[in-house]
Write a structure and sequence with these properties.
The protein is α/β, with parallel strands linked by helices. It has helices spanning 22-26, 33-40, 56-71, 95-102, 120-133, 157-160, 211-215, 225-246, 264-274, 285-288, 295-305, and strands at 6-14, 18-21, 44-47, 80-84, 110-114, 139-147, 165-174, 182-190, 198-199, 222-223, 256-259, 314-321, 325-332.
Length: 333
């Protein structure tokens, strides 16, 4: 069976209006602007306001509308919505269904949430590519939207400085013959032996949020930074190198590297392991902090909008997250 090629037809992003600086956080916990920048490269982050519809489906609506417009299609041309979100609006219905209604899509397309934490959008893109390759769908909306600050422990300086809210979206479409744009290759993985190193222990069926959970302060996310750092740079760099090797390419053939925007040290270390020049790495973590699965599509949109990423260029994407999940995508934009 002949396979179709999938292309990124349109991109979009949205970040909340409210900016929280490092100086503001330093008034809440024992930290400083200098300490945060030195260890993370983060200068500020955006904080969602529920009163302004700045929760996952609301932020995704704004990003998706931009992506759909840039793709040159109408909302009802969307055949499927894949929504990467770690902490959705509610446990059910899923955020993708909420987004379908917000976009005014009336064609009853399929709606699925994907939870692979910060790697979720990479997982969803890989799924979408397979569905387009086989001819099952023609236009798939792939969103990555997160409101991590809703589960920030603002008394824990090791985690509260790291996260921000936002949304990124792309329309992945069937490419026409001769266009050249395609998803070249991808890889997904998870190392569940390290799942406890980045975790939100309560809030699910196993440990509903009740008084005993609140008494133990277990309703917040927690992280072992050293384990996460080592796993992040190891998996992202190795996955990227594997994609290059099996497609007979080198880092010199790559025009842009768009890594998950977790913190600047992880980005820089991964780039060095790949021997990727700094000028080829897309970075915006200083403005938005770690927006989990929204970070890559949002950074991708920024680089497309300002003209850095152009049609025909080779783009390498890589992410890692709780699970510990990881993944990478090699594509021709």
């Amino acid at each position: 069976m002949a396979l179709y090629s999938a292309k990124i037809a349109g991109t979009g992003k949205y970040h909340p209006e409210k900016i929280m600086t490092n100086d503001e956080i330093s008034k809440m916990v024992d930290t400083s602007d200098e300490w945060i920048i030195q260890r993370t490269g983060i200068k500020e982050r955006r904080i969602g306001d529920i009163a302004k519809d700045e929760f996952p489906s609301g932020m995704a609506e704004r990003a998706a509308k931009i992506a759909i417009k840039n793709a040159g299609i109408e909302p009802n041309d969307i055949d499927l919505i894949l929504f990467s979100v770690t902490l959705p609006d509610m446990l059910f219905p899923n955020a993708a269904s909420c987004l379908q209604e917000r976009l005014g899509i009336t064609n009853h397309c399929g709606c699925l949430d994907v939870n692979a934490a910060c790697t979720g959008w990479v997982y969803a893109m890989t799924m979408a590519n397979s569905m387009i390759q086989t001819g099952l769908y023609k236009n798939i909306l792939v969103c990555g939207t997160e409101m991590a600050t809703a589960f920030n422990n603002w008394e824990d300086r090791n985690t509260c400085v790291l996260f921000g809210d936002g949304s990124g979206a792309v329309v992945l479409s069937r490419a026409e013959d001769g266009e050249g744009s395609t998803i070249i290759d991808s890889v997904l993985s998870s190392d569940s032996s390290k799942k406890e190193s980045l975790i939100l222990p309560a809030g699910g069926s196993k440990r509903p949020v009740r008084q005993d959970v609140l008494d133990k302060n277990e309703q917040w996310m927690s992280m072992d930074g050293q384990i996460v750092f080592k796993n992040a740079v190891k998996t992202m760099s190795s996955h990227c190198q594997a994609l290059l090797d099996r497609n007979n390419l080198t880092i010199d053939d790559v025009d842009w590297f768009v890594p998950h925007q977790a913190n600047l040290r992880i980005i820089e270390t991964t780039g060095k392991l790949l021997k990727c020049p700094d000028e080829k790495v897309i970075v915006n973590v200083e403005k938005y902090a770690n927006t989990s699965s929204a970070s890559i599509p949002a950074a991708l949109h920024e680089a497309v909008e300002d003209g850095r990423i152009k049609r025909g260029q080779i783009i390498l994407l890589a992410a890692f997250g709780a699970g510990l999940t990881s993944g990478a995508i090699l594509l021709k934009f």
